[in-house]
Amino acid sequence: MKRQVKRILRVVLCGVLTVGSLAGCGKKNAESALKNGIKTLNDAKNMEADVEMSGTLSVEAAGQKQDMNMAVHMAETLFMDPMKMKITVETTMMGETTSVASYIAKEGDDYYSYSGLPGGWIKTKIGDLEDAVNQAGADINKILPDLSKIKYTQKENQKEDDKEYYVFEYAITGEAVKNMCEGAMGSAGSMESLFPQGQDTEEVLKKIFDSIGTVTMTIWVDPEKETVYKVVCPMTDIMNRVFEALIESIGSSEELDGTDLSQFKMSVSDMNMTMKYTNVGSAEDFDVPEEALEAEEMDLDDLMESGAESEE
User: Fold this and answer.
1) Which of 287, 163, 275 is nearest to 225 (CA)?
2) N or C terminus: fewer CB in 10 A for the chain?
3) How many CB atoms lie within 10 A of CB 110?
4) Stated pTM of the model
């Protein structure tokens, strides 16, 4: 069952993680602070981000239910023009904690992912990331959409550590998430290895991402500094809709050890993701390690096959 859970989580976290990350002086001042905060973030040549996602994952199969605490912490350094990222991800689930260091950088016309695993570095082509983001109606050089592109709705102010923040909400669509995920991974066709043989990949992806609907993001803005403090995304409903659509689409197959997925359920509770931005414009520069650049390139199919073998 662990293998089935990990395979389904791969697809969900793709959308979730492509998904990769605000005092009552009146609405006019709040909107001004929001505008300036977004502009500062989007104009920055570099920054660091701290991302936390946690909650409870529940799995039901063969009349048994297991609840597992799940926590993901990601430390990220991002540089623009050209874009490059240094990412350290620590995941705790099923009683196990794993830590992976990875980089994303441009070589020639394409972007590559470099992942440092116990067996060494793995280099994977992820295509034209800039084009992928543009297809989703976004701008590769913008962390958050500006006020001319999307509607921000002011909510009640919130306090954290005795400090009050302006709070705004905005929404992105499942279609935008789908476009970004497909583009970052090359195309819908290159994602076939995520699904059992015989599945219509594009049809499955459409069902999964259509199920996401509209994702509501919350921005906290520091009213004094007029900077973005953090962005919060409630993930419970999103992930549960995706789990349901994914399991229904895959059905029973030999690829999933012959398990009848009509009796297989996955759900999450209290799952939230928070992104905090620091050192905006003053992040420490970095280079992709030489051993990562020289690693043997693997395509997505090879990578997924290798991952499946390691789970057996």
Assistant:
1) 163
2) C
3) 12
4) 0.70
